[in-house]
Amino acid sequence: MRTAHSVDAVRNAERELMARLPEGALMKRAAAGLATACAGLLKDLLGRVYGARVVLLVGSGDNGGDALYAGARLARRGAGVRVVPLAPGRTHPGGLAALLAAGGRVAEDPFEVLATADLVLDGITGIGGHGGLRPDALPVVRAARGGGAMVVAVDLPSGVEADSGEVTGEAVRADATVTFGTYKPGLLIDPGHERAGALRLVDIGLGPYLPSVPELEALQHADVARLLPVPVGESDKYRRGVVGVVAGSARYPGAAVLAVSGALRGGAGAVRYVGPGGEAVLARFPETLVHEGPPSGAGRVQAWAVGPGLGDGSWAAAAVADVLAADVPVLVDADGLRLLAERTVRERTAPTLLTPHAGEAAALLGVDREEVEAGRLAAVRELAARYGATVLLKGSTTLVAEPASGSASGSASGSASEPGAAPPVRVNPTGTPWLATAGSGDVLSGLAGSLLAAGLPARDAASAAAYLHGLSARLASRGAPVAADDVAAWLPEAWRNVVG
Ligand SMILES: NC(=O)C1=CN([C@@H]2O[C@H](COP(=O)(O)OP(=O)(O)OC[C@H]3O[C@@H](n4cnc5c(N)ncnc54)[C@H](O)[C@@H]3O)[C@@H](O)[C@H]2O)[C@@H](O)CC1
Ligand SMILES: Nc1ncnc2c1ncn2[C@@H]1O[C@H](COP(=O)(O)OP(=O)(O)O)[C@@H](O)[C@H]1O
Ligand SMILES: [K+]
């Protein structure tokens, strides 16, 4: 599991650790790790460090100090290191002295050195930066990218908000980021994540001083493998769980088929389909149990997934209300989200999982879509708190948030944190922009619903489903466009890949 901590948590941990170390020792540790990472990259790029052309973009804070001490180490190994101070007169004095003593120099013409650099270190701002890149930094940052050098961000790409991944205006676009002590939320959540490139974590000994409950967590293969249901000898289809899917309409019969295709591959023992798309579903998946009346008359289910392609007719509204009245976990997606009453969700005692994309989340929150996309972490937390439900916010770097325990009795299961506090938000590390294709969300609804029916707590069902769904899309795509149907078809391969 990858975990990320807030700036406050990092600063507190640094303070405690620094009190036990000689002055400047922590920065030198960070710089040593950074220099080792840069030397490795230069060897991959050029086969050597000696003679490499390295440029340091240095701001006024300790982030610049890290870059300067790392630059000094590279200079001692024979690299030609030039510094571009973006706040002349406020450059980290110890770092600058070390660099000059090692043979580095201040660049006379920043644009000239950037045009021929092999590696550019972005030490403009780290966790102390706010409000995006300042205008005076823009020309050099653009020149760094334009010159063709590899760009390595120190701790965090400058211009990315460390706690949220928000970017105001422009931010550095790095090929790699070397971060210290712990990941920062902004490295794992878009739009920041996309600016960070390949991530590398350098251990500087902060671990024991960081809070045990992080701000954010990203599951990896082994974590997801532990969550996935496995049938045992005594299993039968009912014990494995029955998932009910309420989806599709005369206008969108395909949504029913796609949601069922995800549900069939999610580990439940049987899939019941309720809605007007029964014929289309049966033609494709004869194993589905189809029902035409209201969901409550369909027979026993352990969880419902409701909403994809439902439309907003009276049948749809009644079906959503009927499902929400059931005392089993319910996933609500797409059109179902437009038919929700906040109070109905809050009053449910069984878990509720809402799965909006940014546009649907914006409508639920009464804000613009752009606001949700720019501040995904705040939006998903706000929705979870408001509805007292688990919320999966789709899009690049899908997020899963849980409300604080006590705000909805059913949906806070699986929390490892103190009573009252919401557990860490989960960020999904799999996926590909090729997933942004019509109907792929329907597959996700069925899949997550199936995992709910198999008995996973809402937070785990949501994060395991997002993980498998993203991995499946990657496996199906391998660089080419995918259709939602391909994503469903590759789910068994993704599952094997995770557990294997
Ligand atoms: N405190 C420590 O001992 C350690 C700190 N480390 C480094 O120190 C960094 C944090 O250092 P600081 O607290 O000095 O903060 P930063 O170096 O991130 O930035 C703060 C400085 O940048 C200026 N600034 C803020 N926003 C700006 C913007 N948008 N454009 C231009 N300038 C802006 C501020 O006026 C301030 O002078 C970490 O990210 C990490 O790189 C590491 O060396 C590990 C140890
Ligand atoms: N830029 C992106 N990068 C990665 N995944 C994305 C991106 N945009 C959308 N997705 C994913 O694609 C799926 C689209 O779902 P959704 O928006 O509900 O579409 P639909 O309603 O057509 O099925 C979601 O799983 C979402 O996380
Ligand atoms: K930086």
UniProtKB/TrEMBL annotation:
UniProt binding sites for K(+): N63, D122, S158
Cofactor note: Binds 1 potassium ion per subunit.
UniProt keyword annotations, A-Z: ATP-binding, Isomerase, Lyase, Metal-binding, Multifunctional enzyme, NAD, NADP, Nucleotide-binding, Potassium
Compositional bias (Low complexity): 403-424
Record domain YjeF C-terminal: where: 220-498
Record bears the keyword Metal-binding: yes
Stretches assigned to the YjeF N-terminal domain: 10-212
EC number in record: 4.2.1.136, 5.1.99.6
Cofactor requirements of the protein: K(+); Mg(2+)
Record bears the keyword ATP-binding: yes
Binding-site residues for (6S)-NADPHX, renumbered to this chain: 62-66, 126-132, 155, 255, 309, 357, 442
Molecular functions (GO terms): ADP-dependent NAD(P)H-hydrate dehydratase activity; ATP binding; metal ion binding; NAD(P)HX epimerase activity
Sequence segments annotated as region (Disordered): 403-432
Residues that hold AMP according to the record: K394, G395, S396, T397, T398, G441
Highest taxon in the source lineage: Bacteria
Catalytic reaction list: (6S)-NADHX + ADP = AMP + phosphate + NADH + H(+); (6R)-NADHX = (6S)-NADHX; (6R)-NADPHX = (6S)-NADPHX; (6S)-NADPHX + ADP = AMP + phosphate + NADPH + H(+)
Role: Catalyzes the epimerization of the S- and R-forms of NAD(P)HX, a damaged form of NAD(P)H that is a result of enzymatic or heat-dependent hydration. This is a prerequisite for the S-specific NAD(P)H-hydrate dehydratase to allow the repair of both epimers of NAD(P)HX. Catalyzes the dehydration of the S-form of NAD(P)HX at the expense of ADP, which is converted to AMP. Together with NAD(P)HX epimerase, which catalyzes the epimerization of the S- and R-forms, the enzyme allows the repair of both epimers of NAD(P)HX, a damaged form of NAD(P)H that is a result of enzymatic or heat-dependent hydration.
Oligomer and partners: Homotetramer.
Record family assignment: In the C-terminal section; belongs to the NnrD/CARKD family.
Protein name: Bifunctional NAD(P)H-hydrate repair enzyme
Gene: nnrE
